[in-house]
Amino acid sequence: METTAAKTRMTTTRPALQRLAAALVTVSAMMLAPASARAENWPAKPVTLIVPYAAGGTVDKVARQIQEGLRKRLAQPVMIDNRAGAGGTIGTGQIARSAADGYTIGMVFDAFATESYIYPKLPYASQKDLTGVSYMVRSPMVLVVPASSPYKTLQDYVAAAKQPDTVSYASVGAGSSNQLVAELFHEAAGTSGTHTPYKGGGPAINDLLGGHVDSMIASLPLVMPYVQAGKLRALAVTARQRDARLPAVPAVAETYKGFEAYSWVAMIAPARTPPGVVNKLAAEVNATLRDPAIAKTLRDGGFEVIAGDSAQANKLIQEESARWGRLIKACHIATE
Q: Beta partners for 263?
């Protein structure tokens, strides 16, 4: 049986525990209130959009397509800040170190998912220090050769690549999506190619046009103008099916079942950015992407509008990291 003292202790303890619980609820509410307030009031000042690549590149083009529309939706200036260098890691590092308040955000492309494999000494952890905001757009990639190339079809190219050290391919740098998709293609076809890295898409395309390198697998927006002008010949696209903009060009998957790869662009923010701000930003960005005029311009430029939310962006980054991480390790790919 309980003693009188024990009953007294229980009687005294219960109200104390109740007061403690009430205090914890109050403190929790106070801690959450600023984040909620920030989400409700955001944005109250200009937003800086860091593009970790040079002006005129793929990510920069998408950023400038949405800049004005996003400004209107946010009712605040949206300033693009190009911070190129080190494969995009300089600008991405700046995003990671920025205040997590929604006023400094960034845009990246597919290489973001694999940079931790290529640059193991990064001063930030890509998936820990940053979070996805929107899976914005994607585009198939295209295997192209110069118009003067003897390779008229995908089969011609594969037959040549069966012989070691016969076919070379360009990329915008070691570990880039150009190299990764090319290596995935050669793995599927049982062929090989000599990798020729360049410091950017411009130099790579120039040497390809001049016949100094045999081929390149590059994003559709980058090569489509040259294909349409008859300066490059498209041999295959990396989408699951043929692309309506290049209906005569077969998909790699028609020959190698299941082959599929895309170049993509996503918006990111510092990981501790309040969820309410991230969700509001994602909603405004995606509404901008779906604007009929903006969506048409992007489609005409070779992009497919996805307008996915934060969860979709993070899922994409995680899946792409796992997929290409395997290939990077298998092929011993590293910066040069």
A: 139
Return the structure tokens found at 142: 């295209």
Q: Which residues does 114 contact at the CB level (< 8 Å), separation at least 6?
A: 175, 180, 320, 321, 324, 325, 328
Q: What is the CATH number of domain 140-254?
A: 3.40.190.10
**Domain chopping of the chain, boundaries:** 47-137+262-331, 140-254
Which residues neighbour 327 within 8 Å (Cβ) at sequence distance 6 or greater? 180, 183, 184, 187, 333
User: Can you give the pLDDT of all 336 residues of the chain as single tens digits?
Assistant: 445 554 545 555 555 555 655 555 444 544 544 444 457 799 999 999 999 988 888 899 999 999 999 999 999 999 999 998 888 899 999 999 999 999 999 999 999 999 999 888 899 999 999 999 999 999 999 999 999 999 999 999 999 999 999 999 999 877 889 999 999 999 999 999 999 988 778 889 999 999 999 999 999 998 999 999 999 999 999 999 999 999 999 999 999 999 999 999 999 999 999 999 999 999 999 999 999 999 999 999 899 999 999 999 999 999 999 999 999 998 888 754
Q: Which is the CATH superfamily of the domain at 47-137+262-331?
A: Bordetella uptake gene, domain 1 (3.40.190.150)
Residues sharing a CB contact under 8 Å with residue 44, sequence separation 6 or more, in sequence order: 76
pTM: 0.82
Q: Residue with structure tokens 């998909």?
A: 251
Check for a shared fold between 47-137+262-331 and 140-254. Answer: yes
